[in-house]
Design a protein that fits this description.
nine-stranded parallel beta sheet; about 20% strand; about 260 residues; alpha/beta; 9 helices
Length: about 260
């Protein structure tokens, strides 16, 4: 009996010693695990504040250009020439808001599929570098199965992905994207609801927490007179800090490929 007790104690001691060696190694491995952050910057197309600064950031990112805006072609080319990814920031009808906010390439919930496709093809002519889409506003249109289905069909035909900005919390887009096998992601964090550099820094740290939890985060910021300078400044200041934590900044296309390879 005493011999058995001694053996058990020895085994327990060995187990404790082993765990003492293994756990720190495992914790270090988890700490060093690479995570991905895909940054989308919305509202290009008007040469607004932050445009130049965002284009010059030394990281991959995705610029969403609103078709039909006065400088849509220029901003899209600027982003493309700077090595950034370009997507269509499709203006979709909101529940609240002025119709002129949509611009000449706006899509409303009452449009027939043929008209939606016509608008999207015109948008592609204007922004030929586009490789995907996300929604500009759209709290009403993103509830329309006809609108969403047409967007997803168009994305599939062009080899695009679709990012749901989640301006309205419903599952129509997710359900239709799943049904049609459209490459689809959802925004995790808005960076700049409050126009403050400090606030954007806080949201970038929140994005890091999300990425640590699920391996990646999709975040959206904006150019513009109120938000653009703060978003650009916060990103510039946080790049090296986040990279030191094993964050890899990627375009949405790169993130899609990483996720598909898992």
């Amino acid at each position: 009996m005493k011999r058995t007790t001694r053996i058990i104690k020895s085994l327990v001691s060995a187990f404790i010693l082993l765990m003492g060696l293994v756990c720190p190694l495992y914790a270090q491995e988890v700490q060093n695990q690479k995570v991905y952050i895909a940054i989308i910057i919305d509202d290009f197309g008007n040469q607004m504040a932050g445009t130049e600064e965002i284009a010059k950031l030394p990281i991959p990112l995705t610029g969403a250009v609103i078709p039909g805006m006065p400088f849509a072609k220029d901003d899209a080319k600027k982003l493309h020439d700077a090595g950034k990814e370009v997507i269509l920031h499709v203006p979709l009808e909101p529940i609240k808001g002025k119709p002129n906010w949509l611009g000449p390439k706006g899509i409303t919930s009452g449009m027939r599929s043929e008209k939606i496709r016509e608008v999207l093809e015109e948008s592609m002519t204007e922004i030929p570098y586009a490789v995907g889409m996300n929604n500009h506003m759209g709290s009403r249109a993103m509830q329309s199965k006809n609108v969403v289905a047409t967007l997803m069909d168009f994305a599939n035909e062009k080899g695009f992905y679709f990012v749901d900005s989640k301006t309205y919390d419903n599952k129509v887009a997710q359900e239709i994207a799943t049904e049609k096998h459209t490459p689809y992601l959802v925004r995790d964090v808005f960076l700049d609801n409050t126009p403050s550099t400090g606030y954007v820094v806080e949201r970038l740290n929140e994005a890091y927490k999300v990425a640590k939890e699920k391996g990646y985060a999709v975040v959206i910021g904006h150019v513009g007179p109120e938000k653009g300078p703060h978003t650009a400044a916060a990103l510039k200041s946080m790049i090296s800090q986040l990279q030191a934590k094993n964050v890899e900044f990627v375009t949405v296309s790169q993130l899609m490929r990483n996720l598909q390879g898992q």
